[in-house]
Write a structure and sequence with these properties.
single chain, mainly alpha, 91% helix
């Protein structure tokens, strides 16, 4: 049974030691509480000794008053001639003086004890106040060290290389998404839209060619009859040709130098 009890005490002792080592606030609080308990005990002891001293002081004053009274009574009885009564009163006075001597002896000892207890109480009070101030300073220092340790751990966990790598990945992803959007926009143009754009280009070119032919007629570089014949032939040919063929024909005319839609004058 004794070994089992010692084992349990040892286990809980090691457990409490580990907890206190991780939390020094517990040790500081326990130390403060111990000093406070000692201060309370000394306060009670000092109060008791001081009360005993006051009681002895009161008893000594009463005995001194009794001695004074008995002496006065003895004198009065002696004056009256009552000797026996005076002797009894004197004996009572002597007994009171003996008691007073004992009380004064105990009173001296009680005073010394009161002074010692009061001094011990003041020393314990000073020690308790110093410990409370020291606890506050140590707790503040412990909090600062804990905050600094947390900051250092957080700083150690931060990797600039990992941040740069993540930033570069983000840039690549954004650029890839941008290029994919552009490609989708280009691929999204339908064949019909391209044909419409080609027809609009053909119409603009025909308008430009007619305006140029009119200028040539006005300048005498071309006859009006050839202009009318060219318009008829061009209209028939244009109606029979596809847009792709008209584009090929324009390319051949630009290479051969012959204007589209008519002959040179």
């Amino acid at each position: 049974m004794g070994r089992f009890t010692r084992a349990i005490r040892g286990f809980f002792g090691r457990f409490l030691t580990g907890v206190e080592r991780r939390n020094p606030e517990i040790l500081l609080e326990n130390a403060v509480q111990d000093e406070l308990e000692n201060l309370k005990k000394l306060q009670v002891a000092a109060a008791r000794t001081m009360a005993y001293e006051k009681m002895l002081t009161s008893d000594a004053a009463e005995k001194q008053k009794t001695i004074t009274t008995k002496e006065r009574q003895a004198r009065q009885l002696a004056v009256r001639g009552q000797r026996e009564a005076a002797i009894q009163v004197v004996q009572q006075k002597q007994e009171a003086q003996t008691n007073l001597s004992e009380i004064e002896s105990r009173l001296d000892e009680a005073r010394r004890n009161s002074q010692e207890m009061e001094q011990a109480f003041r020393e314990q009070e000073r020690r308790y106040n110093d410990l409370v101030r020291e606890r506050a300073a140590l707790l503040e220092e412990h909090q600062r060290s804990k905050a600094l340790r947390v900051a250092n751990e957080a700083r150690a966990d931060i990797s600039l290389t990992d941040s740069s790598r993540d930033l570069e990945k983000a840039r690549q992803a954004i650029r890839q998404a941008s290029f994919e959007a552009q490609a989708v926009g280009q691929l999204g143009t339908s064949e019909t839209e391209r044909q419409i754009a080609a027809v609009e280009a053909d119409v603009k070119r025909l308008d430009a060619e007619r305006e140029l032919e009119m200028m040539e007629v006005q300048m005498g570089l071309r006859s009006a009859a050839s202009l009318e014949a060219g318009e008829d032939d061009g209209a028939d040919a244009s109606s029979q040709q596809s847009p792709a063929e008209r584009n090929d024909l324009r390319g051949d005319e630009r290479e051969g130098g012959e204007p589209y839609g008519g002959k040179e004058a």
